[in-house]
Each structure stands twice: as structure tokens, then as C-alpha cells.
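Figure 2 data, in text form.
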Amino acid sequence: MNALLAGGKRRSSPQLTLGAVLLTLLILPTSVTGSGVALPHIDHDTHASLDALQWVVHGYNLTFASFMLACGSLADLVGRRRMFTVGAALFTGASLVSAVASNIILLDVVRGLAGVGAAALLTSGSSILATTFDGAARTRAFAAVGIATGAGLALGAMIAGVLSDTLGWRAFYGSHALLMALVLLVVPFMPESRSESAARVDWTGTVTFVGSLFLLMLGMVEGPQWGWGSAGVLALLIGSVVLMVVFVLVERRQEHPMFDLSLLRNGRFMALCLIPVVVTFAFVILLPLLPNYLVVVNESSSKSAGATMLLMTVPILVGPILAGKLIKWGWSARSVFTASLACLTFGVAWLALVLEPGVGAGALAGPLITLGIGLGLNFGLVDGAVLTVVPSQATGAAAGFLNTLRLGSEAVVIAAAGSALVNLLQNSLRDGLDRFPTYRGEPEELANDANAGDLDDALSELPANARSGLFDFVADGFTDAWHVVLWVSAAICALLSVAIYVMLGEPKERPAASAGAATPTKGATTVESVP
């Protein structure tokens, strides 16, 4: 085995390694932004219930978030290239099965497995680059990482729309399998490394954390279907709370915990970790959900809806460049973060003002571009700043906490927003659906169809002269539901933004004995001077 590893080191190629990791990080975000666009096509083929359909997105997000720290610990233990290989094989296989699956339950399961593979790929891929490159080369490599990830977010919806409209939704997942197969061909040329001081994986913490997040999401997804006061939903939510309490108690007694809970007492660290939560409420919830609104209410094609989403995602590529220039011009990192949060909060409120049936790309351009610039201004900057406000020995735990909170908040908030839209639309439909006696379905069924992005089946059951009236009724109710979700999101973003601004203003230096104190190492940048 040692000889094999030694041979692997002799064959390693930094250029091929960088290319493989960048291609991987281009692919992974498209599963987040593209799956929402593909959902109406999946619904049309499978005729699945809304909750089962939503798990195509939720399953990937949940496992991606939940297994991040465990995969990172395993990579340190067994080898980063080995973990990257396992992740690539799992993601490739899951994508291939996704492309041929005809059963929605099977599709949900393999999307969850793809999320596990994505977690392994992201954690090990970043570590491989960190050990392959040094100095200026490492800086260039991680700058390229930001560009690749941003491009994946920017192009995912468009690619999914084009492939789904022309070749079918299966081609979207099939393209993932094909591209990841190319990555697997490069694996033998990647270097192997592991941490000599790596601690064992905190399985107890991992199981309780994953279980708590899973039960919370399942309760939110099933709430509109089972009833928020039903025994099943209450049991899921209570179980989630119990497992989270157990997780905290376990972590306080672990020698090598999944989370270093003492970091929670570091105000500036927590402020930086809350920035991605604002991004989730303002930006990320739109990625899988807004295309369905455009498909239903504007009767857009998936390709057209994906193209509209480019207004929001393409500015991500420009934002980091603008952030760098602002800092060179004398702006502090705190000021850049403040501008970012202002754009995100204003953008989602602006979207609430302009969103209406028949809204065109021109009216959407302002809020969507503002949201994209808001994310771009902090894209990558947060990750670098987090590592400067914690002790050097806690940087690994800090990065892990940031990414888990980022992906975990995405999974939970997307589930909550989707459930809120279903519940609000159901309530709206119950108040007036009796005006359309030719429609034989239930309000719950009609709300599910709208949120899944497909009203064709429901409208086809009606006489031609009754379809327009029902369509307008559903479109107005759907728009009202979106207004509530967007205004609530804007309010949450505003409150969090104020809290973050205050927390970032804490004194730069703290007494060394204070809990969670962070003293940057010599030559390190602080949150006020991130390069």
C-alpha cells in the first residue's frame, strides 16, 4: 500500500488535480440550482405527490449539509484522495441512477446519496488543493475555486432548463454522471495526503445531528400534507428538538467533538457565520422555488425560467471582483459585508413589490441583479474572514461549522419556504374554489400542483371556457403566498443584518483568557482588513 501511495505521488499532476477539482465544484452547485427547474418535468413523468417531489431537492441538500463534517474527518483519517474517489464514485453512480429512475422514491433516495458524495467531494477536494499548492499558487487556485463554484450557481438553472426542455430532465442528471466520470479518470494523477494528528470521527455527534436535521425537514415538508397539529408532525418536530439537545450534551463531553461549542461564544465568528443565513433567506430559497412560480403563473418554459434566473446568478461572478476593489479603495471588510447585507435585504423586499402575474424580465431585473451583487460581495470573503477571528488551532472546526450552518440553513429554510407556500396557497384556494364547480379536485391537490410547477393536468379536467378563470384564481393566490414569504424573508434579513453589523463591531482584541477569544496569528488579516 505504501508503494502504491508513493507511486501515486510520483504520478501526481498539480494541473490535472486543479482541473478535476474545479470541474467537480462546477458540477455540485448545479444540483442545487438546477433540480428546482427540472421538477415540473419530473412531476409530469412520475405524477408524484408534492412532498415526494420536493425530496428530489431536499434529499440532496440535507445529506450534503449533514455529512460535511463527517466526510472531512474521514478524509483526514483515511486519505483525501481516497475520500475524493469514494465521493466521485458515489456521486457518479447516484447521478446515473437518477437519470434512469422511473420511481420517485428511488429518485429521492439516490439524490440523497448524491448529496453524501457531494459532501465527500467538497471537503476532500478543498483539502487536496490546500496540500497541493503553496503561496501565490494556492491563492490563485482558491480564486479559481470561487469562480468555478459561482459559475455552477449561475449556470445551473439555465443548463437544467435547456436540457429538460430539449432532451428531458434525465439528461440533466445524466450529464452529471458523464462529467464526473471524466473526473474519475484524473484521480490516479492526484496526490494522496492525510493528517497525522487526525482524531476519530465523532459518530455519536454525527448521528444525532443528522437525525435532528432530518426530522426537522421531514416535519416541515409534511406539515401542509398531514396538518401542522397532527400527531405525526408534532412527533417529528419534538424528536428533532430531543436529538439536538442530545447532540449538544454529547458534544460537551467529547474529547474531539463534531462542533467546538466554545466557538459559539465568539461574537465576531458567529456574526460571520450568520451572513450565509441571510443569503439563504434572500437568495438561496429563490433558486429551486422561483422557477416554478414563473412556469405556472407566467406559463414560461423551463428554459425561459432558467434564463430569467441568470439575472440573479450571473452577478455572482462580478461581485467578488467588486468586493476586492472596494477593499483596495479603503473599505473595511465590515463595510463590504454591510453593503452585501443591504443589497440582499433590499433585493428580496424589491422582489416582493414587483412580483405579480405576467411580470416580465425587465421588472425582475432590478431586484434579481441586486440580489446577485449582494451575494457576490461576500462570496468567498466570509470564508477567509472566519479563519482570522478564531484561534489557529480552531480553524478546521470554524470552517466546518460555517459550511454546516450554511448548507444546513439552506436545507431547512428551503423546506420551510416550500411548505409555507403550499400552506398559504391551500388557505387561499379554500376561500374561493367553490366558484369553480367543474373542478372536482381538492384545494390541497391544486396547491400541490401549483407548487410543483405543473397546472396542466388540473386545467385539462375542466371545460375550455372555465380554464382561464381557475388559472387566474390560482395565479393570484400563488402570488399572494409568495408576497408573504418574501416579506417575512425581508424582515428576517433586516433583523439579522442589524445583529451582524453590531456583532462585527466588537473589539478587535480580547483578553487571552476569555472564552472563545480569537487572536490572529502574525501576518494574518482581521475581519477589518481581509485582502
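Caption note: Residues 337 and 378 are 6 Å apart (CA to CA).
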